[in-house]
């Protein structure tokens, strides 16, 4: 039954809700992002500067068989570059680099500062050396590249020398065997049967000697080329660590994540109503209508009928009509005639006044007789909006004066000048009216209003400050809870719903308003009105009780013709009605004169109502 279902669906979507949460707790997110940036700056300042210099080495095949690639090697070719990369950081190469650098560190300490990379599909090794000194980084990279090439060349030469020695030994043995065979053949007769066998051995030995001699000559003429440096190490101009930009970005991201997490935690722990969707989800209360934040409720007038706020309360009126079932075959308006709807605020504030006044105006726009009853006591006037300003009526006499027996209900009922079919019974000015909202006089007053009006809207005190709202709800046919975003707590809404349901009154739902802001000027005017009401209260306390009213037949409220308006810019004088003194002992009533300046405004205000001062 949400009158703003589309708007609520848009507001309560997960993405928009997350952004709204961050917007509501922007200071917390900003604080943690700043803390993350500050921590990143401090961490950057504490880090030691690290310079890196790289040398590119082209690895050439030696051609002696020791460069053969393994079957499962990562690189394809005659050279296994994975093995060569491991050789760069070996202890032997590190010791050679230490001698070239004339460093004091051990070979293992130097090897830990080296990083070797193998570019894909190449026979290059990129040897990178890290140091806190730029010149040391350059010298270290070049030293390890030079030591690697020297070690590789020496290893290749040692391998070639070993193979030459082996071939030379085999040749010496074969030559010795051949010499023995030749000597034996020289001593044999041509017809000796052993001669063919010795000649075959001589041929085999001669062939082997020729083969080994060829291999020996190849090794003796082989030139060893271990590789070369294609790009020597350069002097680094700036350190690679700390990376200030990366640290700042990481700190800001970490702060943002912590800020969002803290905002989410604060949102979970915060018991204030932040969104209309909180009510059905947390306290199981239906949202009848929700006034969006872009529509600012006014505390000096009701919403215009065709404005955004007026349309919302027109829909709220329809929601109320639909929530109270009508008898079969009966008109909804006839079924609702004489019904009482109580509007109670879940927390202190002007939410109930704004909702009650606008709902009553919406009922009056249907052409049916409507009465707005303000049941706030004078001690809570400072926490509510002024109904007399919103509807253009006097502050006194009102409901408390009627219940105290100072005035009759007819004299306390005022017609709203800007809203036909709407009558108002203000709070009144009797300061000794405490507890009267639970009296039989209130029941009789509401019964009389039921007979005279089609709709009776009662503005009840807040359920969090008084039990009067529960008492009023027990006399009503339906109840509505007024909720003010960012001020009303979920526990207060749950308590209000529980109070109203315990007395058996159907709770139609809640009307959600954005947080109401009262300007400083508005607060000063409210204080002046309270002062005037206190002055009038002192006068009314001295009046004798009114004569009992004669029973009257049930009838609709009819308003006397309005007095002619004073000329523009003129001054009208209003006096309290004269009362005949019942006894000489009663002091003479003092008459207070109030000057009211009426300004003729040809143009409408923001919500379509005339501005009056």
> Which range best describes the helical content: under 10%, 10-25%, 25-40%, 40-55%, 55-70% or over 70%?
40-55%
Count of individual beta strands: 14
Question: What would you call the quaternary organization?
Answer: single chain
Number of helices in the DSSP assignment: 20
**Major pleated sheet:** 8 strands, mixed
Proportion of residues in extended strands: 5-15%
State the end-to-end CA separation.
39 Å
Low-confidence parts: 1-16, 332-336, 378-384, 519-613
Structure classification: alpha/beta
Query: What is the gyration radius calculated from CA atoms?
Result: 51 Å
Spatial ordering of strands, largest sheet: 5-12-11-6-10-7-9-8
Transmembrane segments: 25-43
Biased composition (Low complexity): 559-577
Biased composition (Basic and acidic residues): 543-553
Protein name: Tyrosine-protein kinase G-rich domain-containing protein
Layout: helices, strands, pairs:
Elements: H1 5-11, H2 14-24, H3 26-46, E1 51-59, H4 81-88, H5 91-101, H6 107-111, E2 114-117, E3 124-131, H7 134-187, H8 195-221, E4 227-231, H9 244-269, H10 278-283, E5 287-290, H11 308-323, H12 332-336, E6 339-345, H13 351-364, E7 370-374, H14 387-391, H15 399-403, H16 409-412, E8 414-415, E9 422-425, H17 440-452, E10 455-460, H18 468-474, E11 478-484, H19 490-502, E12 507-513, H20 520-541, E13 571-574, E14 594-597
Parallel strand pairs: 5-12, 6-10, 6-11, 7-9, 7-10, 11-12
Antiparallel strand pairs: 1-3, 1-4, 2-3, 8-9, 13-14
